[in-house]
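Budget justification aside, the reviewers requested a transparent look at the raw inputs and outputs of the sequence design task funded under Objective 1. We therefore reproduce one unedited record. The lines immediately below are the C-alpha cells for a 244-residue chain.
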C-alpha cells in the first residue's frame, strides 16, 4: 500500500507540474503577438500624422502680396510684385523714343523666332510718365490718350509676330482717387507656333492716370502671355496705387 500511495502521489505531482508548465507557456506566446499588432497600429498612425505635419509646411507658399511692391518714383505709381519667375525691372529694349519706362517687372514666357533671330518673349508690367508725343490737356483727354497709347504699343512691341488684336474693355477708373482710363486688349497668335510660341494668346492693358495740371500723367502698361497666367493682369490693375 505504501508503494502504491507513493506511486499515485508521484503521478499526481507530475500531472500538476506538466499543467503548470503549460499554463506558464501560453501567456509567453500570446503577449508578444498582441504587442506586435498594437505596435504596428500605433507606428503607422504616428508615422502618417508626422509625415502630414512635416510635408504641409513645405507645400505652403508665401502669398505674393507679402513681397515689397514695385515703386516707381518717377510716375508715382506702385503695384504688386509677383513671385518667381517674375523679377524686378522692365526689359530695357522697351524704352524707345515714344515710350520711357522708369520701373517694372517681367518674366520670360518663352522664345520666339523673328527675322532669323531667337529672342526672349516677356510677360511684363511697366510704368512711366506720358511722353510729349501724346497730346494731353487734362482728364477729358484720358480716353483718347489711352486709346492712342494702345494703338502705338501694337506696332512697337508686337509687330514681330503675326497677330490680331481685340478690344476687351475701355472704361474710366480711379487710382488712389485720381481719374484714370484703362484699355484692355487681347492679342491672338494664330500662327505663333510657326515662330516658336507655345501660347496662342496674350492679355494686355494700358492705364493712364491724371496726376494734376502741373505733372505729366502716369502710364501703366501690362502684357501677360497665357502660359504666365492672364489673371495676373487683373492682379496688377487692382494693386495700382498713386503716391504724390
Amino acid at each position: 500500500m505504501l508503494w502504491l500511495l507513493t506511486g499515485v502521489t508521484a503521478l499526481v505531482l507530475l500531472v500538476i507540474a506538466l499543467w503548470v508548465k503549460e499554463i506558464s507557456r501560453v501567456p509567453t506566446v500570446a503577449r508578444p503577438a498582441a504587442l506586435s499588432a498594437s505596435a504596428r497600429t500605433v507606428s503607422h498612425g504616428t508615422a502618417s500624422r508626422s509625415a502630414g505635419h512635416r510635408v504641409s509646411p513645405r507645400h505652403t507658399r508665401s502669398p505674393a502680396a507679402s513681397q515689397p511692391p514695385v515703386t516707381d518714383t518717377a510716375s508715382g505709381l506702385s503695384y504688386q510684385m509677383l513671385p518667381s519667375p517674375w523679377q524686378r525691372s522692365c526689359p530695357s529694349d522697351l524704352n524707345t523714343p515714344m515710350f520711357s519706362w522708369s520701373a517694372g517687372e517681367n518674366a520670360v514666357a518663352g522664345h520666339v523666332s523673328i527675322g532669323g533671330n531667337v529672342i526672349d518673349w516677356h510677360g511684363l508690367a511697366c510704368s512711366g510718365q506720358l511722353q510729349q508725343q501724346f497730346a494731353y490737356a487734362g482728364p477729358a483727354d484720358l480716353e483718347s490718350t489711352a486709346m492712342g497709347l494702345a494703338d502705338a504699343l501694337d506696332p512697337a512691341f508686337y509687330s514681330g509676330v503675326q497677330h490680331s488684336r481685340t478690344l476687351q474693355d475701355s472704361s474710366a477708373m480711379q487710382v488712389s482717387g485720381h481719374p484714370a482710363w484703362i484699355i484692355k486688349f487681347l492679342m491672338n497668335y494664330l500662327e505663333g507656333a510657326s515662330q516658336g510660341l507655345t501660347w496662342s494668346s496674350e492679355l494686355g492693358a494700358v492705364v493712364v492716370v491724371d496726376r494734376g495740371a502741373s505733372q505729366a500723367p502716369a502710364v501703366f502698361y501690362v502684357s501677360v502671355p497665357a502660359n504666365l497666367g492672364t489673371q495676373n493682369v487683373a492682379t496688377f490693375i487692382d494693386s495700382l496705387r498713386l503716391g504724390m
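The first helix runs from residue 2 to 59. Confidence is low (pLDDT under 50) at residues 19-64. Computational costs for records of this kind are itemized in the attached budget.
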